[in-house]
Amino acid sequence: VSTQSTGSSGINAEYGKQWYQRRVRGNMSILFLAFVIGAVSAQAGYPTITVEDQKGEKGGSISASFTLESSEIKLQQSDVHVDKASKDHKFSPVRFTVKMEGSGSKITGTITGDKLTCDDQSGYLVYYQRIPRPPAHGPPPGSFMLMIDGCPKPPRRSSGRPTFYYSRTLLFLQFC
Asked: Which of 9, 17, 47, 53 shows the greatest Cβ crowding within 10 Å of its Cβ?
């Protein structure tokens, strides 16, 4: 009699273990799917940003143009930001003048600056609403490098393009 009751509880324990494993796998699948959908939706609707690397002379001036275009969302100038990435991986607003025109599906802008210094030589990022997730390869959309003639080149620089990395939830910039 005791053998039958032990065997019965052994079967119930095995069934319970299998049920639990299926339940955990199902929940993990749902969490993974939610993560993938969240990552895709975070990039969905993000505007296409076009800007090119710039070069200036120490003490001179620059004028750089950029465009933002989107057929999925209505663009607003107040959501467009231009930040400078410092060597210690912090972002700050540019000291240059930023002027923009347009709204809706396309915004064009111009970044102008005078009296360039070696401190201006850095990576910059034009972005919409929030800093975007970097792509798997290459620079993020809207990034550009400002090189100043007469200033030392940034350390460990090979391509002249800034490379962005994520570390947990922080965004870092490293010059390649």
From this structure: 47
Strands 170-175 and 162-167: antiparallel
Q: Are 112 and 124 in contact (CB under 8 A)?
A: no
Beta strand segments in the chain, E: 48-51, 54-57, 62-69, 80-85, 91-93, 97-101, 106-113, 122-128, 143-149, 162-167, 170-175
Summarize pLDDT for 1-16 with one digit per residue, the tens. Answer: 444 445 555 666 676 6
Residues 6+ positions from 81 with CB-CB distance below 8 Å: 93, 126, 127, 128
Q: What is the CA radius of gyration of the chain?
A: 26
Q: Which residues pair with 127 in a beta bridge?
A: 81
Tokens of 45: 């609707």
Q: Is the dihedral of CA 18, 24, 25, 27 positive or negative?
A: positive
Q: Are 96 and 112 in contact (CB under 8 A)?
A: yes
pTM for this predicted structure: 0.63
Residues facing 126 on adjacent strands:
82
CA dist 105 and 115 (Å) reads 34
